[in-house]
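Collaborator request, handled under Task 6.
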Amino acid sequence: MMDSLLTYISIAAMMVIIPGADTMLLVKNTLSYGTKAGRYTVLGMVTGLSFWTLIAILGLSVVIAQSVILFNTIKYLGAAYLIYLGIRSFFAKSVFSLEEMKEQANSPVNSSKTHNKESFMQALLSNVLNPKTVLVYITIMPQFIDLNGHINQQLILLASILTLLAVLWFLTLVYVIDYAKKWLNNSKFQKAFQKSTGIILVGFGVKTGI
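Structure tokens returned to the collaborator:
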């Protein structure tokens, strides 16, 4: 059992570390709005994973996977949303400024609340509308479940491990990105990054929809 669990942890860690739409969203939001927005992005990811854990426990993930209509609906909605975020990022005119961030942090009317909420919702919707998350729960996790044991308890354990690894990895990225931001406070770099992020997100969206 322990060997099986260690194997699962290794696979889950690789799945989390491999850059994807979540990584791009995290980098974009942290660079644009600061570490708090980055943490809210991580919270959105965790909420999305928790949603699919609940769905799996209720047995609906298998139903969704076996229903071509439901699965494709989630698939195309997720693809469309990533493409929307990519286009929005590509044509964004604003760039972040360390000085402006400090002023906003000390401002009585702090617009960061809006950015934090937006960051949370982007990550939440990106995960909820990601059909690949469904596949993780119905293809990878079942391989590490003992059918003679309590299936739901094992599922919760495996999902918790995946979520914990995601939280640790992405929170680490938030602070790495924030530290590197000292050297990235350049408007030309930021504009190039926003456009590159937009193109990559659109690419993820197209790939998801295929």
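The cover message to the collaborator said: "Residues 97-109 have pLDDT under 50 and may be disordered. DSSP finds ten helices and no strands in the chain. Please let us know whether this matches your experimental observations."
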